[in-house]
Amino acid sequence: MKKALLSLPHGSLGGNRTTALRWAKVLRELGWHVALASKGLQAEAELLIALHATHTRAEVEELLRAHPAAKLVVACTGTDLYEAREESQALLERAHRVIVLQERMLDELTESQRERARVIYQSAPTLAEAPPLPKDHLRLALIASVRPVKDPLLAVRAVQALPESSKVQLLHLGEAIDDELSEQLERESESCARYEWRGRSSRLEALRLIASSHAVVLPSKSEGGASLITEALAAGTPILASDAPGNVGVLGDAHPGLFPRGDTAALTALLARIETDGGFLERLRERSAQRAWIASPDRERAAWRELLAELA
């Protein structure tokens, strides 16, 4: 059996960890033995996969010294291409293949990197039985770790700016990472009847919230290709998202639920429209249905099969 080592940033949670676990499962289904690089430095390996070109650089360079004949696949995150471009170049130049999570990321690569790049959209599971939508209020799901780049306060402020008669409620799942921002959100959760932050959750809890919400909100300042989007597409849940390149790359320019990054008033207007315009909410649902092909596990598995065949 062929062996692969998977390198991901130390302490990875949220989207990166979800992606790593899913890709390991896909590779096993395709006949590979997969181990975390931190537990397999001395093991034989034909394939090295780095999830994050910037934060895994030191470990991957050690792996390359231990396995000079192994093929290297580097998966780019939003941090690699939108925030730490210079730091990501060392591994991207050495990679036999570069994975990007949506087509707009190709624009951030050099010509040589684009020739070796392949787009692999993230897939997402569907629940066997979706929980019902609340009938006494309009539930919005915010699933994001608490750090400035995710901009959760923007969503909170948008909800607070709605008219007093509004029945919108924002339910937030996400681990506390930034202390100052976490303290702010704790205060908002205690004082604002429309917002509740429940902290870190399991993957199943997050999927159930997505499926039982009238819409999900992604206010991020930067994204590479958020797993939340594909999870919402798989569930058929309407999506409101900032115009970060990673969001637009998955949803498309024509998505009716896009709003400018950092623009509280624009998001508030979309929330009010969801609550008062049933036709708009239906258009968002239709758009999610049109893009649901992106979330197909079969499609993601086929993309990996093709990439591995190229390397062979």
Short description:
It is built from 13 helices and 12 strands. With 312 residues, the protein is an alpha/beta fold. The chain has a 6-stranded parallel beta sheet, sandwiched between helices. Strands 9-8-7-10-11-12 form a 6-stranded parallel beta sheet, sandwiched between helices.
Tag the structure with descriptive keywords.
Rossmann fold, elongated, six-stranded parallel sheet, 312 residues, 17% strand, 2 domains, single chain, alpha/beta, 13 helices
Please write out the topology.
Layout: E1 2-7, H1 14-29, E2 32-36, E3 47-51, H2 57-66, E4 71-75, H3 78-83, H4 85-94, E5 97-100, H5 111-115, E6 117-119, E7 138-143, H6 152-160, E8 168-173, H7 179-191, E9 195-197, H8 203-211, E10 215-218, H9 227-235, E11 239-242, H10 245-251, E12 258-259, H11 264-276, H12 278-290, H13 297-311
Parallel strand pairs: 1-2, 1-3, 3-4, 4-5, 5-6, 7-8, 7-10, 8-9, 10-11, 11-12
Question: Could you characterize the architecture of this molecule?
Answer:
- This protein has 312 residues and is α/β, with parallel strands linked by helices.
- The protein has helices at 14-29, 57-66, 78-83, 85-94, 111-115, 152-160, 179-191, 203-211, 227-235, 245-251, 264-276, 278-290, 297-311, and strands spanning 2-7, 32-36, 47-51, 71-75, 97-100, 117-119, 138-143, 168-173, 195-197, 215-218, 239-242, 258-259.
- Strands 2-1-3-4-5-6 form a 6-stranded parallel beta sheet, sandwiched between helices. A 6-stranded parallel beta sheet has the order 9-8-7-10-11-12, with helices on both faces.
- Helix 2 links the parallel strand 3 and strand 4.
